[in-house]
Amino acid sequence: MRQLQHLFASLTSEVVPGPTKQQGRHTCSAFRMEIRNTMRVPLFWRNALGMVVHEPPSASTTAGEYFYIMIEYEFDPGVKIDARELLNELDLPENHTERKQIYEALQSLEREPQWHHQRKFTYTLGIDRERLEAAGGVAYLNDVDLVVGFAKHASDATHPYSPPGQRERMSNAVDPAEGFQQRMVLVDNAGVNGPRWINTGFGVYEVTPVEDPSLQDGFYLTVFHHRSGEPSTEHHTYVVAEKTFGLYRSRAEAEAFGSPEERFKAELKETEQQIARDKVALAREKQQVDRERHEMEREKRTEEDRREREKTEHEAQLARERDQLDRERERMKFEKERMEYERQTFSERQKFEYDMRSRDRKDHSEQTKALLDMAKIMLGLVTTGLSLYAVIKKNSN
Q: In angstroms, rounded to a whole number, what is the distance separating the alpha carbons of residues 30 and 390?
């Protein structure tokens, strides 16, 4: 069987908490597991992704004490199903009832018309309390790739195929009774990296890679510590292991750089190269800083020019407003003087007209008086004439 590389999938969407909304009818295949605890004690389960879930004890008093896993498959009408590997992994006898039921369910799905909307089947697996206790309170369920057990064992039981579980299995391979041990393992499942050599100072040794689908590619170093009394395992990539632990791609490199003097020269050369890279990075960073400073200065000058233009425009506006105000004041002053002149002219004209009317009235009164005096004189003359006429006439008789 071809060995597979251990890779990490890319995150192609945001992590959205809470249940997702159903978008109408299904247009893709789906796989779902439902877990139910009917035991009267708390349980936990752990998957290979590192998720640990604690299931509370059941309140039921009649159901059997089980840890149930219901598995549901739902397939898009266009897919083709091949479950031979699934059936083999269940590790059940050929005549086992559960195996026959799964096989028959898959066969019936294959016979369903392609236009049928839902093609699904479910089955339930379980482990009872007695079997779990007989297994020491924790077990790995191979057919569902879960570690299950009583809650008190949650911190002690790792998943065998998770990164922590892989390191634990490597550490358990060291026997403290044999004294100090340092175990190095190269895992190359794809067969593309090849062997490495290491120079311990006493000799050059080849480290041959192995294939182990349960382990991720890389360099595993397991060391037994006398102080803690427990072995510990570190995992590193090939690149990190070559730089950190002195793994070389050929025996000649290991022999040349394995001695302290040559290793010092190599480290000195690496340091010089690192200094050169740091200088280049520093120069680039300085250029970036200079560009940012020039940009800030340009923005500052632009802002100062803008403020200067605004100041000039504001001052020009104030000057225009002052001129307008001065013109308005001159207009109001002129208007005031005009009104004062008209007021004075009007008063003088009224006085002149009043004097003229007074003079006319005086002249008219004097003329009337003169006429009356003349009339009196004339009346006196007439009276005198009449009296004289009467005397003359009387004398003539």
A: 165
The verdict on 354 and 238 lying in the same domain is: no
Q: What is the distance between the alpha carbons of residues 150 and 138, in angstroms, rounded to a whole number?
A: 6
C-alpha angle 145-88-133 in degrees, rounded to nearest 5: 45
Residue 217 contacts residue 8 (beta carbons within 8 Å) = no
Which residue segment(s) compose the domain that 132 sits in? 30-159
Which whole number is the average pLDDT over 52-75?
Answer: 81
**pLDDT score of 125 more than 60:** yes
Nearest CA to 30 out of 81, 68, 72, 69 is that of 72
Radius of gyration of the chain (CA): 59
Is the same domain home to 250 and 137?
no
Q: Lowest-confidence range among 51-55, 164-168, 204-208, 371-375?
A: 164-168
Is residue 6 assigned to a domain? no
The 10 Å CB-count burial string (b at 16+, else e) for 278-295 is eeeeeeeeeeeeeeeeee
Pairing state of beta strands 182-187 and 146-150?
unpaired
Query: Do 305 and 245 have their domain in common?
Result: no
Q: Within this chain, do residues 184 and 238 fall inside the same structural domain, yes or no?
A: yes
What is the number of other CB atoms lying within 10 angstroms of the CB of residue 159? Answer: 22
Into how many domains does the chain fold?
A: 3
Asked if residue 266 is part of any domain, the answer here is no
Q: pLDDT digit string (tens) for 222-253? A: 776 655 666 777 888 888 888 877 788 888 77
Per the CB < 8 A criterion, the answer to whether 249 and 206 are in contact is no
Phi-psi region of 36 (alpha: psi -120 to 50; beta: other; left: phi over 0): beta
Per-residue pLDDT of 27-46, as tens digits, reads 677 778 888 999 989 999 98
* 258 pLDDT tier (thresholds 50, 70, 90): low
DSSP letter string, 183-232: EEEEE-SSS-S--EEEE-SS-EEEE--B--TTS-SEEEEEEE-TTTSSEE
Q: Is residue 4 part of a domain?
A: no
Residue 1 covered by a domain = no
Distance CA(181)–CA(195), nearest Å, equals 22
My answer on whether 250 and 288 are in the same domain is: no
Cβ proximity of 119 and 112 under 8 Å: yes
Question: Looking at 134, 159, 184, which one is the last position of a domain?
Answer: 159
Residues in the chain: 397
Considering 136, 159, 182, which residue would you say is the last residue of a domain?
159
